[in-house]
Design brief:
Blueprint: H1 3-16, H2 18-22, H3 39-55, H4 58-66, H5 77-91, E1 97-102, E2 112-117, E3 126-137, H6 139-147, E4 153-156, E5 163-168, E6 174-175, E7 181-184, E8 192-197, E9 208-209, H7 226-231, H8 237-241
Parallel strand pairs: 6-9
Antiparallel strand pairs: 1-2, 3-5, 3-8, 4-5, 7-8
Helix pairs in contact: 1-5, 3-4
Amino acid sequence: MSSIELAKMNDLSSALIVDPYLGFKTHKIYDSYPPSLSNAEVFKLQEIVLEYLQDQSLEEAYKKFRIFCTDYTDLNEQLLRKQMASHLQTLDEDVGAGIRPCKRYSKDEQNGVQIIATRKWKKHEVIPSLFGHVAQITNEEENTLRVANKNFSVMESTRNNAKYLLLGSISFVNSSCDANCEYTGASAEKTTVGIRTKRTLAKDEEITVFYGEDYFGDENKECECPACERSGKGAFWNISSS
């Protein structure tokens, strides 16, 4: 699986599932890849999501969503299934997490999202509906995406000093410098990454992870997370010191 394949299947999956559910276009890596949908098609996609939430049949949902992909000749069917499963389970709030709009972060341009706990979680519990897939990414690919100001997740392996593009429902989890969750299962040999709680989570609390020390500029000086706002750090340092 290449990073390009992962990005395209993730873009397509989120365009067919997450965007109709939320009512706006979430960030894409390849803006020209997802389909342009009519209002009637969006309504049909919303119906498919509601049907899935009632019958919980991933296979039936995939067959229905697959009809909207007939114009694509470069589909990775197995990967597309995995991405759709990841996104669909994020919409099922009965499993303990749900997706919500989020207008906090400036780079999201009012089209951001966040993941909220829909029940109480104990410390060190794995949240099964939040998972994603990784593919190795080159420094050149990462730099290209950063220059284009794309909103995406990159993990760095301390074992082989390689970087991996991380996508799926897990990529909707925002970063916090006081994160309540952490990634689990990540390694050079595994392609699936999950989320585990670091402490008890209350219902309606945002689920967060820590992206890294320098993810938002040197020493995260551009970080806009609530923890930085409370402490007057990151993007709020000049505000607090003025």
